[in-house]
Design a protein that fits this description.
Strand 7, helix 11 and strand 8 form a beta-alpha-beta unit. Strands 4-10-9-8-7-5-6 form a 7-stranded mixed sheet, with helices on both faces. It has a two-stranded antiparallel ribbon with strand order 1-2. By secondary structure, the protein is α/β, with parallel strands linked by helices. The chain is built from 16 helices and 13 strands.
Length: 481
Protein backbone atom coordinates (compact mmCIF):
# COMPACT_ATOMS: atom_id res chain seq x y z
CA UNK A 1 0.00 0.00 0.00
CA UNK A 2 1.34 3.43 -0.96
CA UNK A 3 0.75 6.35 1.38
CA UNK A 4 1.34 10.05 0.86
CA UNK A 5 4.39 11.68 2.43
CA UNK A 6 2.38 12.67 5.52
CA UNK A 7 1.05 9.14 6.07
CA UNK A 8 -2.43 9.81 4.66
CA UNK A 9 -4.32 7.08 2.84
CA UNK A 10 -7.13 7.89 0.41
CA UNK A 11 -10.70 6.65 0.70
CA UNK A 12 -10.42 4.52 -2.46
CA UNK A 13 -7.28 2.84 -1.13
CA UNK A 14 -9.01 1.93 2.15
CA UNK A 15 -11.98 0.56 0.20
CA UNK A 16 -9.62 -1.69 -1.81
CA UNK A 17 -8.01 -2.96 1.40
CA UNK A 18 -11.40 -3.73 2.94
CA UNK A 19 -12.51 -5.77 -0.07
CA UNK A 20 -15.87 -7.52 0.45
CA UNK A 21 -16.12 -6.45 4.08
CA UNK A 22 -19.92 -6.98 4.26
CA UNK A 23 -19.92 -10.49 2.80
CA UNK A 24 -22.86 -9.52 0.61
CA UNK A 25 -25.00 -8.63 3.61
CA UNK A 26 -26.45 -5.34 4.81
CA UNK A 27 -23.65 -2.95 5.88
CA UNK A 28 -23.37 -2.53 9.66
CA UNK A 29 -21.14 -0.35 11.82
CA UNK A 30 -19.87 -3.27 13.91
CA UNK A 31 -18.81 -5.17 10.79
CA UNK A 32 -16.93 -2.14 9.45
CA UNK A 33 -15.35 -1.66 12.90
CA UNK A 34 -14.06 -5.22 12.97
CA UNK A 35 -12.78 -5.03 9.39
CA UNK A 36 -10.81 -1.83 10.08
CA UNK A 37 -9.48 -3.22 13.36
CA UNK A 38 -8.18 -6.25 11.48
CA UNK A 39 -6.36 -4.05 8.96
CA UNK A 40 -4.63 -2.20 11.81
CA UNK A 41 -3.60 -5.40 13.62
CA UNK A 42 -2.07 -7.00 10.53
CA UNK A 43 -0.17 -3.86 9.50
CA UNK A 44 -2.24 -2.94 6.44
CA UNK A 45 -3.12 0.33 8.18
CA UNK A 46 -0.06 0.86 10.42
CA UNK A 47 -0.41 3.01 13.56
CA UNK A 48 -0.16 6.67 12.61
CA UNK A 49 -1.91 6.30 9.24
CA UNK A 50 -4.09 9.35 8.70
CA UNK A 51 -7.59 8.27 7.64
CA UNK A 52 -9.79 9.99 5.03
CA UNK A 53 -12.60 12.25 6.16
CA UNK A 54 -15.80 10.55 7.25
CA UNK A 55 -17.65 12.06 4.27
CA UNK A 56 -15.06 10.78 1.77
CA UNK A 57 -14.93 7.41 3.52
CA UNK A 58 -18.71 7.00 3.41
CA UNK A 59 -18.79 8.01 -0.25
CA UNK A 60 -16.12 5.49 -1.17
CA UNK A 61 -17.93 2.68 0.64
CA UNK A 62 -21.37 3.69 -0.58
CA UNK A 63 -22.79 3.80 2.97
CA UNK A 64 -24.23 6.48 5.21
CA UNK A 65 -21.92 8.85 7.03
CA UNK A 66 -23.62 7.85 10.31
CA UNK A 67 -22.48 4.23 9.81
CA UNK A 68 -18.85 5.36 9.31
CA UNK A 69 -19.07 7.70 12.29
CA UNK A 70 -20.40 4.92 14.53
CA UNK A 71 -17.64 2.50 13.44
CA UNK A 72 -14.90 5.08 14.06
CA UNK A 73 -16.41 6.04 17.43
CA UNK A 74 -16.23 2.40 18.55
CA UNK A 75 -12.63 2.12 17.30
CA UNK A 76 -11.75 5.23 19.33
CA UNK A 77 -13.20 3.61 22.44
CA UNK A 78 -11.15 0.48 21.76
CA UNK A 79 -7.98 2.51 21.18
CA UNK A 80 -7.53 1.72 17.47
CA UNK A 81 -8.29 5.27 16.26
CA UNK A 82 -7.31 8.63 17.69
CA UNK A 83 -8.67 12.03 16.65
CA UNK A 84 -8.06 15.68 17.31
CA UNK A 85 -10.25 18.58 16.26
CA UNK A 86 -8.82 20.19 13.15
CA UNK A 87 -6.26 17.39 12.65
CA UNK A 88 -8.55 14.52 11.59
CA UNK A 89 -8.25 10.86 12.65
CA UNK A 90 -5.43 8.34 12.47
CA UNK A 91 -4.90 4.70 13.38
CA UNK A 92 -3.29 3.63 16.65
CA UNK A 93 -2.80 0.60 18.87
CA UNK A 94 -4.25 0.23 22.36
CA UNK A 95 -1.99 -0.94 25.21
CA UNK A 96 -1.60 -4.71 25.23
CA UNK A 97 -1.89 -5.32 21.46
CA UNK A 98 1.86 -5.65 21.08
CA UNK A 99 4.66 -3.18 20.50
CA UNK A 100 4.58 0.57 20.67
CA UNK A 101 2.66 2.66 18.23
CA UNK A 102 5.84 4.25 16.99
CA UNK A 103 7.56 1.01 16.07
CA UNK A 104 5.70 0.50 12.78
CA UNK A 105 4.97 -2.75 10.97
CA UNK A 106 2.94 -5.76 11.99
CA UNK A 107 2.19 -6.55 15.62
CA UNK A 108 1.95 -10.00 17.23
CA UNK A 109 -0.78 -10.67 19.79
CA UNK A 110 -0.24 -9.00 23.16
CA UNK A 111 -2.43 -11.51 25.04
CA UNK A 112 -1.03 -14.90 25.94
CA UNK A 113 -4.33 -16.63 25.22
CA UNK A 114 -4.33 -15.57 21.54
CA UNK A 115 -3.04 -18.23 19.13
CA UNK A 116 -0.83 -16.61 16.50
CA UNK A 117 -1.83 -18.16 13.16
CA UNK A 118 -0.67 -15.03 11.31
CA UNK A 119 3.01 -16.00 11.25
CA UNK A 120 4.66 -19.21 10.10
CA UNK A 121 7.63 -19.14 12.45
CA UNK A 122 8.94 -22.33 14.06
CA UNK A 123 10.61 -22.16 17.44
CA UNK A 124 14.39 -22.47 17.75
CA UNK A 125 15.92 -25.91 17.42
CA UNK A 126 17.85 -27.18 20.48
CA UNK A 127 20.98 -27.13 18.33
CA UNK A 128 20.86 -23.33 18.30
CA UNK A 129 21.90 -23.22 21.98
CA UNK A 130 24.76 -25.62 21.34
CA UNK A 131 25.92 -23.59 18.34
CA UNK A 132 25.89 -20.38 20.41
CA UNK A 133 28.13 -22.03 23.02
CA UNK A 134 30.60 -23.19 20.40
CA UNK A 135 30.57 -19.77 18.71
CA UNK A 136 31.33 -18.02 22.01
CA UNK A 137 34.41 -20.18 22.45
CA UNK A 138 35.59 -19.04 19.02
CA UNK A 139 34.83 -15.37 19.60
CA UNK A 140 38.19 -14.34 21.10
CA UNK A 141 40.21 -14.53 17.85
CA UNK A 142 37.29 -13.03 15.92
CA UNK A 143 37.26 -9.80 17.95
CA UNK A 144 40.92 -9.15 17.14
CA UNK A 145 39.80 -7.55 13.87
CA UNK A 146 37.49 -4.61 13.16
CA UNK A 147 34.39 -6.84 12.89
CA UNK A 148 32.99 -5.33 9.70
CA UNK A 149 32.26 -7.86 6.97
CA UNK A 150 30.10 -6.19 4.28
CA UNK A 151 30.12 -9.35 2.15
CA UNK A 152 30.06 -11.69 5.14
CA UNK A 153 32.74 -13.76 6.83
CA UNK A 154 34.75 -16.01 4.56
CA UNK A 155 33.94 -19.10 6.60
CA UNK A 156 30.16 -18.66 6.40
CA UNK A 157 30.23 -17.83 2.69
CA UNK A 158 32.27 -20.97 2.09
CA UNK A 159 29.76 -23.12 4.00
CA UNK A 160 26.85 -21.73 1.98
CA UNK A 161 28.74 -22.21 -1.29
CA UNK A 162 29.31 -25.85 -0.31
CA UNK A 163 25.56 -26.34 0.18
CA UNK A 164 24.87 -25.06 -3.34
CA UNK A 165 27.59 -27.40 -4.64
CA UNK A 166 25.92 -30.33 -2.88
CA UNK A 167 22.65 -29.49 -4.69
CA UNK A 168 24.40 -29.54 -8.08
CA UNK A 169 25.08 -25.84 -8.58
CA UNK A 170 28.77 -24.89 -8.80
CA UNK A 171 29.28 -21.92 -6.47
CA UNK A 172 32.32 -20.13 -5.05
CA UNK A 173 32.41 -18.03 -1.84
CA UNK A 174 32.84 -14.82 -3.85
CA UNK A 175 29.38 -15.46 -5.37
CA UNK A 176 27.80 -15.30 -1.89
CA UNK A 177 26.88 -12.27 0.22
CA UNK A 178 25.57 -12.55 3.80
CA UNK A 179 22.55 -10.40 4.67
CA UNK A 180 20.21 -9.78 7.60
CA UNK A 181 17.63 -12.29 6.40
CA UNK A 182 16.07 -13.07 3.01
CA UNK A 183 13.83 -9.99 3.16
CA UNK A 184 16.90 -7.77 3.57
CA UNK A 185 18.52 -9.67 0.68
CA UNK A 186 15.54 -9.02 -1.58
CA UNK A 187 15.45 -5.34 -0.64
CA UNK A 188 19.14 -4.97 -1.52
CA UNK A 189 18.60 -6.61 -4.91
CA UNK A 190 15.56 -4.43 -5.62
CA UNK A 191 17.54 -1.32 -4.74
CA UNK A 192 20.30 -2.34 -7.13
CA UNK A 193 18.17 -3.40 -10.11
CA UNK A 194 14.77 -1.70 -10.09
CA UNK A 195 13.93 1.95 -10.69
CA UNK A 196 10.66 3.64 -9.63
CA UNK A 197 7.83 2.78 -11.98
CA UNK A 198 9.40 -0.37 -13.37
CA UNK A 199 7.47 -3.66 -13.31
CA UNK A 200 8.24 -6.61 -11.05
CA UNK A 201 6.52 -9.89 -11.87
CA UNK A 202 5.17 -11.79 -8.85
CA UNK A 203 3.14 -14.93 -8.32
CA UNK A 204 -0.39 -14.52 -7.00
CA UNK A 205 -0.71 -15.35 -4.18
CA UNK A 206 2.76 -14.51 -2.90
CA UNK A 207 4.73 -13.68 0.23
CA UNK A 208 3.24 -10.42 1.62
CA UNK A 209 6.49 -8.79 2.71
CA UNK A 210 7.89 -9.12 -0.80
CA UNK A 211 5.03 -6.94 -2.04
CA UNK A 212 5.84 -4.36 0.63
CA UNK A 213 9.49 -4.34 -0.48
CA UNK A 214 8.50 -3.85 -4.12
CA UNK A 215 6.12 -1.02 -3.29
CA UNK A 216 8.78 0.48 -1.04
CA UNK A 217 10.97 1.05 -4.12
CA UNK A 218 7.96 2.59 -5.93
CA UNK A 219 8.05 -0.26 -8.45
CA UNK A 220 4.87 -1.85 -9.83
CA UNK A 221 4.08 -5.47 -8.90
CA UNK A 222 2.54 -7.39 -11.82
CA UNK A 223 0.64 -10.46 -10.64
CA UNK A 224 0.58 -13.78 -12.51
CA UNK A 225 -2.16 -15.95 -10.96
CA UNK A 226 -1.31 -19.51 -9.99
CA UNK A 227 -3.85 -21.97 -11.42
CA UNK A 228 -5.06 -24.85 -9.23
CA UNK A 229 -2.21 -24.09 -6.86
CA UNK A 230 0.52 -24.35 -9.51
CA UNK A 231 2.35 -22.15 -12.01
CA UNK A 232 0.78 -21.49 -15.41
CA UNK A 233 3.90 -21.43 -17.62
CA UNK A 234 1.95 -20.15 -20.65
CA UNK A 235 0.76 -17.20 -18.59
CA UNK A 236 4.21 -16.60 -17.11
CA UNK A 237 5.80 -16.56 -20.55
CA UNK A 238 3.09 -14.25 -21.92
CA UNK A 239 3.60 -11.81 -19.06
CA UNK A 240 7.37 -11.82 -19.60
CA UNK A 241 6.83 -11.13 -23.31
CA UNK A 242 4.11 -8.49 -23.03
CA UNK A 243 4.86 -6.81 -19.71
CA UNK A 244 8.66 -6.60 -20.05
CA UNK A 245 9.17 -6.76 -16.26
CA UNK A 246 12.57 -5.66 -15.02
CA UNK A 247 12.54 -8.33 -12.34
CA UNK A 248 10.60 -11.46 -11.40
CA UNK A 249 10.18 -12.59 -7.78
CA UNK A 250 9.56 -16.34 -7.60
CA UNK A 251 9.34 -19.06 -4.92
CA UNK A 252 9.70 -22.37 -6.82
CA UNK A 253 10.36 -24.50 -3.73
CA UNK A 254 7.32 -24.80 -1.43
CA UNK A 255 5.82 -21.54 -2.55
CA UNK A 256 4.53 -19.23 0.18
CA UNK A 257 1.58 -19.55 0.79
CA UNK A 258 0.50 -22.43 -1.51
CA UNK A 259 3.30 -24.90 -0.63
CA UNK A 260 3.67 -25.85 -4.33
CA UNK A 261 6.98 -27.02 -5.80
CA UNK A 262 7.91 -26.34 -9.42
CA UNK A 263 8.87 -29.37 -11.49
CA UNK A 264 12.28 -29.74 -13.12
CA UNK A 265 10.67 -29.51 -16.57
CA UNK A 266 8.92 -26.24 -15.69
CA UNK A 267 12.13 -24.80 -14.20
CA UNK A 268 13.95 -25.51 -17.44
CA UNK A 269 11.19 -23.90 -19.50
CA UNK A 270 11.07 -20.88 -17.20
CA UNK A 271 14.85 -20.52 -17.34
CA UNK A 272 14.71 -20.38 -21.14
CA UNK A 273 11.98 -17.73 -20.99
CA UNK A 274 14.01 -15.59 -18.56
CA UNK A 275 17.01 -15.73 -20.89
CA UNK A 276 14.90 -14.95 -23.94
CA UNK A 277 13.27 -11.89 -22.40
CA UNK A 278 16.34 -10.79 -20.39
CA UNK A 279 14.41 -10.64 -17.15
CA UNK A 280 16.34 -11.19 -13.93
CA UNK A 281 14.60 -13.49 -11.45
CA UNK A 282 15.01 -13.31 -7.69
CA UNK A 283 14.42 -16.88 -6.55
CA UNK A 284 13.47 -17.10 -2.88
CA UNK A 285 14.78 -20.36 -1.39
CA UNK A 286 13.76 -19.65 2.20
CA UNK A 287 11.78 -22.93 2.28
CA UNK A 288 14.06 -25.12 0.18
CA UNK A 289 15.48 -27.08 3.15
CA UNK A 290 11.99 -27.83 4.50
CA UNK A 291 11.39 -30.76 2.17
CA UNK A 292 8.98 -33.19 3.84
CA UNK A 293 8.83 -35.59 0.89
CA UNK A 294 10.96 -38.65 0.19
CA UNK A 295 11.56 -38.03 -3.52
CA UNK A 296 14.56 -36.36 -5.18
CA UNK A 297 14.60 -32.56 -5.21
CA UNK A 298 14.75 -30.73 -8.55
CA UNK A 299 17.94 -28.77 -9.31
CA UNK A 300 18.07 -25.10 -8.23
CA UNK A 301 16.45 -22.67 -10.65
CA UNK A 302 19.83 -21.00 -11.24
CA UNK A 303 21.02 -24.23 -12.86
CA UNK A 304 18.74 -23.42 -15.82
CA UNK A 305 19.41 -19.68 -16.14
CA UNK A 306 22.63 -18.86 -14.31
CA UNK A 307 23.10 -15.25 -15.42
CA UNK A 308 19.38 -14.42 -15.12
CA UNK A 309 18.87 -15.71 -11.56
CA UNK A 310 19.74 -14.22 -8.18
CA UNK A 311 19.04 -16.59 -5.29
CA UNK A 312 18.15 -15.47 -1.76
CA UNK A 313 17.99 -17.74 1.27
CA UNK A 314 17.55 -17.57 5.02
CA UNK A 315 18.37 -19.34 8.27
CA UNK A 316 15.15 -18.19 9.94
CA UNK A 317 12.77 -20.99 8.93
CA UNK A 318 15.26 -23.84 9.35
CA UNK A 319 17.05 -22.86 12.56
CA UNK A 320 15.50 -19.79 14.23
CA UNK A 321 13.95 -16.48 13.15
CA UNK A 322 15.86 -14.57 15.83
CA UNK A 323 19.14 -15.39 14.13
CA UNK A 324 18.27 -12.83 11.40
CA UNK A 325 20.75 -14.00 8.79
CA UNK A 326 20.27 -14.72 5.11
CA UNK A 327 22.30 -14.68 1.91
CA UNK A 328 22.43 -13.81 -1.75
CA UNK A 329 23.95 -16.09 -4.39
CA UNK A 330 24.60 -14.30 -7.70
CA UNK A 331 27.26 -13.75 -10.39
CA UNK A 332 30.52 -12.37 -8.93
CA UNK A 333 30.27 -8.96 -10.58
CA UNK A 334 26.76 -8.40 -9.25
CA UNK A 335 27.81 -9.43 -5.73
CA UNK A 336 30.65 -6.87 -5.88
CA UNK A 337 28.13 -4.23 -6.96
CA UNK A 338 25.89 -5.11 -4.01
CA UNK A 339 28.80 -4.90 -1.57
CA UNK A 340 29.73 -1.42 -2.79
CA UNK A 341 26.12 -0.18 -2.61
CA UNK A 342 25.40 -1.77 0.76
CA UNK A 343 27.08 1.04 2.70
CA UNK A 344 24.05 3.23 2.04
CA UNK A 345 21.87 0.75 3.97
CA UNK A 346 24.12 -0.96 6.52
CA UNK A 347 27.74 -2.02 6.99
CA UNK A 348 27.34 -5.77 7.23
CA UNK A 349 25.74 -8.53 9.30
CA UNK A 350 26.70 -9.25 12.94
CA UNK A 351 29.89 -11.29 13.27
CA UNK A 352 28.79 -13.38 16.28
CA UNK A 353 25.59 -14.50 14.56
CA UNK A 354 27.65 -15.50 11.53
CA UNK A 355 29.80 -17.69 13.75
CA UNK A 356 26.63 -19.28 15.15
CA UNK A 357 25.17 -19.95 11.70
CA UNK A 358 28.46 -21.39 10.50
CA UNK A 359 28.34 -23.84 13.41
CA UNK A 360 24.71 -24.73 12.66
CA UNK A 361 25.45 -25.42 9.00
CA UNK A 362 28.43 -27.59 9.89
CA UNK A 363 26.22 -29.78 12.11
CA UNK A 364 23.01 -29.56 10.06
CA UNK A 365 23.01 -33.29 9.30
CA UNK A 366 21.69 -33.77 12.86
CA UNK A 367 19.39 -30.76 13.12
CA UNK A 368 17.65 -30.70 9.72
CA UNK A 369 16.00 -34.15 10.09
CA UNK A 370 14.68 -32.99 13.48
CA UNK A 371 13.12 -29.87 11.95
CA UNK A 372 11.60 -31.80 9.08
CA UNK A 373 10.08 -34.41 11.35
CA UNK A 374 8.70 -31.67 13.62
CA UNK A 375 7.02 -29.96 10.65
CA UNK A 376 5.78 -33.22 9.15
CA UNK A 377 4.09 -34.06 12.47
CA UNK A 378 2.56 -30.56 12.70
CA UNK A 379 1.30 -30.73 9.12
CA UNK A 380 -0.38 -34.08 9.65
CA UNK A 381 -2.00 -32.98 12.92
CA UNK A 382 -3.31 -29.80 11.28
CA UNK A 383 -4.77 -31.82 8.40
CA UNK A 384 -6.46 -34.16 10.90
CA UNK A 385 -7.89 -31.23 12.89
CA UNK A 386 -9.28 -29.60 9.74
CA UNK A 387 -10.85 -32.88 8.73
CA UNK A 388 -12.66 -32.97 12.06
CA UNK A 389 -13.61 -29.32 12.48
CA UNK A 390 -13.72 -27.87 8.95
CA UNK A 391 -14.41 -30.81 6.61
CA UNK A 392 -15.80 -28.54 3.89
CA UNK A 393 -12.50 -26.67 3.45
CA UNK A 394 -10.26 -27.82 0.59
CA UNK A 395 -6.47 -27.75 0.32
CA UNK A 396 -3.49 -29.60 -1.07
CA UNK A 397 -1.21 -31.31 1.40
CA UNK A 398 2.18 -29.75 0.56
CA UNK A 399 5.39 -31.76 0.25
CA UNK A 400 7.24 -29.12 2.24
CA UNK A 401 7.21 -25.61 3.62
CA UNK A 402 5.34 -24.32 6.64
CA UNK A 403 1.64 -23.93 5.85
CA UNK A 404 -1.58 -25.06 4.20
CA UNK A 405 -3.35 -22.77 1.73
CA UNK A 406 -7.04 -23.43 2.39
CA UNK A 407 -10.12 -22.63 0.35
CA UNK A 408 -12.84 -22.00 2.94
CA UNK A 409 -15.61 -22.06 0.34
CA UNK A 410 -16.95 -18.70 1.57
CA UNK A 411 -15.95 -15.12 0.83
CA UNK A 412 -15.17 -14.22 4.42
CA UNK A 413 -12.19 -11.89 4.01
CA UNK A 414 -11.67 -9.49 6.85
CA UNK A 415 -14.88 -10.68 8.52
CA UNK A 416 -13.29 -14.03 9.36
CA UNK A 417 -10.11 -12.30 10.57
CA UNK A 418 -12.18 -10.22 12.98
CA UNK A 419 -14.39 -13.12 14.10
CA UNK A 420 -11.35 -15.35 14.71
CA UNK A 421 -9.73 -12.64 16.82
CA UNK A 422 -12.80 -12.64 19.06
CA UNK A 423 -12.28 -16.39 19.50
CA UNK A 424 -8.60 -15.91 20.37
CA UNK A 425 -6.99 -16.70 17.00
CA UNK A 426 -4.89 -14.17 15.08
CA UNK A 427 -5.06 -14.68 11.28
CA UNK A 428 -3.31 -13.07 8.34
CA UNK A 429 -5.89 -11.65 5.96
CA UNK A 430 -5.79 -13.28 2.52
CA UNK A 431 -5.63 -9.82 0.95
CA UNK A 432 -2.04 -9.52 2.19
CA UNK A 433 -0.96 -12.31 -0.20
CA UNK A 434 -2.45 -10.58 -3.23
CA UNK A 435 -1.57 -7.59 -5.38
CA UNK A 436 -5.22 -6.64 -5.71
CA UNK A 437 -6.63 -8.18 -2.51
CA UNK A 438 -9.18 -10.52 -4.15
CA UNK A 439 -8.58 -13.86 -2.39
CA UNK A 440 -11.40 -13.64 0.14
CA UNK A 441 -12.12 -17.36 0.28
CA UNK A 442 -8.49 -18.28 1.01
CA UNK A 443 -6.66 -18.69 4.29
CA UNK A 444 -3.05 -19.56 5.14
CA UNK A 445 -2.69 -21.83 8.16
CA UNK A 446 0.87 -22.53 9.36
CA UNK A 447 1.65 -25.85 11.04
CA UNK A 448 4.57 -24.52 13.08
CA UNK A 449 2.78 -24.46 16.45
CA UNK A 450 2.70 -27.39 18.91
CA UNK A 451 0.17 -30.07 17.93
CA UNK A 452 -2.19 -29.46 20.87
CA UNK A 453 -2.22 -25.72 20.11
CA UNK A 454 -2.98 -26.38 16.44
CA UNK A 455 -5.94 -28.57 17.30
CA UNK A 456 -7.36 -26.05 19.77
CA UNK A 457 -6.88 -23.19 17.29
CA UNK A 458 -8.71 -25.03 14.50
CA UNK A 459 -11.64 -25.65 16.83
CA UNK A 460 -11.82 -21.95 17.67
CA UNK A 461 -11.50 -21.06 13.99
CA UNK A 462 -14.35 -23.39 13.08
CA UNK A 463 -16.60 -21.72 15.66
CA UNK A 464 -15.69 -18.29 14.27
CA UNK A 465 -16.46 -19.38 10.69
CA UNK A 466 -19.76 -20.93 11.81
CA UNK A 467 -20.86 -17.51 13.05
CA UNK A 468 -20.46 -16.18 9.53
CA UNK A 469 -21.74 -19.16 7.53
CA UNK A 470 -23.67 -21.57 9.74
CA UNK A 471 -25.26 -23.09 6.63
CA UNK A 472 -21.92 -24.69 5.61
CA UNK A 473 -21.87 -27.10 8.56
CA UNK A 474 -22.02 -30.77 7.64
CA UNK A 475 -20.55 -30.56 4.14
CA UNK A 476 -18.32 -33.55 3.34
CA UNK A 477 -14.52 -33.45 3.25
CA UNK A 478 -12.75 -32.62 -0.03
CA UNK A 479 -9.11 -33.20 0.80
CA UNK A 480 -6.79 -33.02 -2.25
CA UNK A 481 -3.52 -34.95 -1.98
Amino acid sequence: MVFSVDGTIGANAVVRLLGDWTGGRRPRADVLRDALRGLVLEGQLPPGTRLPSERAFAGGLGVSRNLVTSALDELRELGFVESRRGAGSWTSLPPGDGGSAGAGGWYPPGREDVVNFAQGTPEALPEVFEAVSRAHRRLTPAVAGHGYHPQGTGELRERIAERFEARGLATTPDQVMITNGAQHAFALVLRALVAPGQRVLVEQPTYPNSLEAIRGTHARPVAVPMVDGYWDLDLLEATLAQGSPRLAYLIPDFQNPTGARMSERDRERLGSALKRHRTTAVVDETMVELDLSTGPAPPPQAAFAESEVVTVGSASKVFWGGLRLGWIRAPRDFVRRLVVGRAAVDLGSPALEQLVLSELLEHSAESLPRRREQLRHGRDRLVAALGEWCPEWTYRVPEGGLSLWCDTGGHYGSRLVAAAERHGVRLASSSRFSVEGDLDSRLRLPYTLPAEVLEDAVGRLARAAAELSPETEGVGAQLVT
